[in-house]
Amino acid sequence: MTTTTSNRLWGVEEVSDFLGVPVATLYVWRHRRQGPKSRRVGRYLRYAPEDVRAWFLEQE
Q1: Is the pTM of this model over 0.90?
Q2: Is pLDDT above 90 for 5?
């Protein structure tokens, strides 16, 4: 099975780069149940790019 960029999940570093916020901010948001939707995959935190983009577009 080949992974393409379009369906690949993002890690915290990629979301941090996309949003322009520190990685620590993403962990704080997750703890406070704010920010884009994230999921645990094993011990790793992953984000669906479409969830991150949708969350971003909802912000004023």
Answers
A1: no
A2: no
3-state secondary structure of 55: helix
Write out the H or E segment, with its range, that includes residue 45.
strand 44-46
Collect all residues with Cβ–Cβ distance below 8 Å to 41 and sequence separation of at least 6.
9
**DSSP β-bridge partners for residue 10:** 47
SS3 of residue 30 by DSSP? helix
Per DSSP, the three-state class of 46 is: strand
What distance lies between CA 3 and its chain's CA centroid? 18
